[in-house]
Amino acid sequence: MTIGPALPLSMLLGVVYTSIYVLLRGDAGGRLPLTYLAATLGCLVGAAIGDRLGMDVLVIGDYALIPASITAWIGIGIVAVLATLGPQSQKARR
């Protein structure tokens, strides 16, 4: 049984993009695992979409890197927006 390149590459890119997000923002709070999950799933979905649409500008094997990156950042953005719209902690309200 072999593992295709999509899962390990998506997990690696999820770590990289989550790290860049935390570096730029300074803090991810308690939503770091959710941000990583959104980035990893975004990479998987983006790679699948890019493969289906035939986007072969920058690929690693069958892994379309550009659509994977775009959808990973969209996933991170969704988590950030939902965290902003959600209830705030008691510590932040003071």
Kindly describe this structure.
The protein is mainly alpha-helical and 94 residues long. 71% of the residues lie in helices and 4% in strands. It has helices at 6-25, 32-53, 65-85, 90-93; strands at residues 59-60, 63-64. A two-stranded antiparallel sheet has the order 1-2. A hairpin with a 2-residue loop joins strand 1 and strand 2 (63-64). Helix 1 packs across helix 3 and helix 2 (32-53) runs antiparallel to helix 3 (65-85). The termini are far apart.
Spatial order of the strands in the main sheet? 1-2
Say how many strands there are. Answer: 2
Mean pLDDT: 87
Bin the helical content: over 70%
The low-pLDDT segments are none
Tell me briefly what this model is.
This protein is mostly helical and about 90 residues long.
What labels describe this entry?
4 helices; mainly alpha; elongated; two-stranded antiparallel ribbon; 94 residues
Give a topology summary:
Elements: H1 6-25, H2 32-53, E1 59-60, E2 63-64, H3 65-85, H4 90-93
Antiparallel strand pairs: 1-2
